[in-house]
Specification:
Length: about 280
């Protein structure tokens, strides 16, 4: 009997280890493929110049700046709304059917295709509010798109804080809001930042919502205000691969843009990861 359990354990461990190796292989292959094809075109001019001659020369600086603006703006839109919603659902809401329906709806929204959010942003922010095709419309649309992810991650992080911490704070005379502010939120911050990291990755790779609300095919300068349209790396890659007149040059530029996009997501995510680790160390999580 013990031998059978030991054999089952070894088989199970081997299968799990094999799945991990396969996953790492595919992830490594993706990064290697993009790096080999895209790193060769990277130069200082490519990073700092504007596109020239039908996007066959020059650089992609406006697309890099536009992508960073949309990533930052969408997180600034979604993070306070998502955390506030999670706090209400976990700390204040009554345990009723309607609240459960809200939670189910939030989870379902996380699986809605991004093109649907793009159409929503086009109808509401671009047309109804009159923001036009702009960075503001794109940030609001992308923020709403990742809002369910941040709400779900924040709820899980808040629930993970031990109930005894809340009870100890209340026993010392703190109000419920003071308990949330001083005890619950600091303890749940690493989990909330995990949701932010995942949201950054999704925002950076989206094309359809940007196409409808913020992106432009070509521009010779940088966006001047939140109401300006902008180039973005995902849409720029799509344009280079589908609308090009010089594919021998534009395919190389597209791989270079993909490599830059990977690096940009890595840098922003690394910053969030470092902040998360600092919070964990500070609160002993």
């Amino acid at each position: 009997m013990k031998m059978n359990k030991s054999l089952d354990q070894k088989i199970g461990f081997s299968l799990i280890f094999s799945m991990m190796l396969i996953t790492l292989f595919f992830l490594g292959s993706l990064v290697y493929f993009i790096a080999v094809r895209g790193a060769g075109i990277i130069s200082w001019q490519f990073l700092t110049d504007v596109p020239r001659e039908a996007m066959t020369k020059g650089g992609v600086a406006p697309a890099i700046v536009g992508t960073f603006y949309l990533m930052l703006g969408s997180v600034l839109v979604a993070l306070p709304l998502g955390v506030a919603c999670a706090i209400y659902l976990c700390e204040y809401s009554p345990k009723k059917t309607i609240v459960n329906l809200i939670r189910i709806s939030i989870n379902n929204l996380a699986g809605v295709p991004s093109v649907v959010f793009g159409l929503f942003g086009l109808a509401v922010f671009v047309k109804f509010f009159g923001f036009g095709v702009s960075i503001l419309s794109g940030c609001l649309t992308l923020g709403i798109m990742v809002l369910p992810n941040i709400i779900s991650a924040s709820q899980e992080a808040l629930i993970a804080v031990p109930q005894s911490h809340r009870e100890a704070s209340l026993a010392l005379g703190a109000t419920q809001w003071q308990t949330i502010k001083k005890v619950v939120l600091p303890g749940s911050l690493p989990g909330i930042l995990t949701g932010v990291i995942l949201s950054i990755g999704r925002v950076a790779g989206e094309t359809a919502p940007i196409l409808f609300t913020a992106g432009t095919f070509y521009m010779r300068g940088f966006p001047k205000s939140p109401l300006s349209e902008t180039m973005v790396l995902p849409y720029h890659i799509y344009a280079l691969m589908t609308e090009g007149v010089h594919p021998e040059f534009q395919v190389k530029i597209a791989y270079g843009c993909a490599f830059i996009l990977l690096i940009l997501v890595l840098l922003v995510s690394s910053f969030a990861i470092i902040l998360r680790q600092q919070q964990r160390s500070r609160y002993g999580i």
